[in-house]
Amino acid sequence: MDGRVRRAHPDPQAQAPGREREVRRRGELSLRVSLDPVPTHVFDVEAHRGGAGLNPENTLQAFGEALALGVSTLELDVHLTRDDDVVVSHDPALADARLIRQLGRADLPPTMPLLRDVAALLEERGADPVRVNLEIKYDAMAAAELTSRAHFVAIALDAIRIDGLLLRTSIQCFDWGVLRLVGDEAPGVRRNLLVSPKYLEPAPDGPSHWFDGLDVATTFATQFVDTAAEQGFDAISPIHGSPFLSGVDDAAYVPFASGELIDRAHEVGLDVIPYVVDDPPTMAHLVRLGVDGLITNYPDRLRTVLASLGQPLPEPFPAG
């Protein structure tokens, strides 16, 4: 363990940031070294699309099973319908290629929930500690097919407020402009930057379109972290590495969520929650490096890894 003062999850009110800043300002981190093999903070177990490896993704079935298993966060994606309903779906189109943005609620599959349905499930289960990590699926490369950043953010935030999710929701996005707008409109909502090398690469006509005109230094692998902190983001969610479906036991594996990246993020006050980590050895490796959480299709595997490392586990909220 590197001795950093860790921040608790999933309750952001329990983080005691003042003390953390004081310790860092005084340069006393080296004096606060634990002999524990892994950090002992409450680890953020995020069920990717509700746990897409265990149940149909982004469905009430998946979210319900994840709650029964015991996770700290339901990770999900949202799009807007023609009538500005906030619907939970990863893809912008149905299997027949019709865009969700051009359809009404009645045109969508019955298994595709609205955000309010997820809120109702959380209330029904009494799952008060469980957070929602909501990805606004704004695509900077296909904006003409969707809607403006400002409109998408405004509707999503309205839904979060109306559905009673405001205090328990983080908003994540690959698009820096979306997260900046969220900060302007709802300063108390946590903002997590999704990131991989692909989204840092320059466009043919200039910097990455995902930067929304922001000057983001990318010469070195960790430089974007400083800009993310300057923007007031709360966390980064980097891809764990490549090949995406491999892990640390693969000789060809190249980590993106490296120890260097994790350390730099923590130095500037950002949590690190890599995605999508399904391989148990890679899970254990990242936990030992000090990440604050993991987004996974298999929260059952992550719970097993955490238990083997002596970590506390999220409370289950079964039906009935």
UniProtKB/TrEMBL annotation:
PANTHER family in the cross-refs: GLYCEROPHOSPHODIESTER PHOSPHODIESTERASE (PTHR46211:SF14), GLYCEROPHOSPHORYL DIESTER PHOSPHODIESTERASE (PTHR46211)
Disordered: region residues: 1-26
Biased composition (Basic and acidic residues): 1-10
Residue runs in coiled coils: none
Domain GP-PDE, chain residue ranges per copy: 43-306
Gene Ontology molecular functions: phosphoric diester hydrolase activity
The protein, known as: Glycerophosphodiester phosphodiesterase
A Pfam family of this chain: GDPD
InterPro entries, alphabetized: GP_PDE_dom, PLC-like_Pdiesterase_TIM-brl
Listed GO biological process terms: lipid metabolic process
Organism: Nocardioides currus
Highest taxon listed in the record's lineage: Bacteria
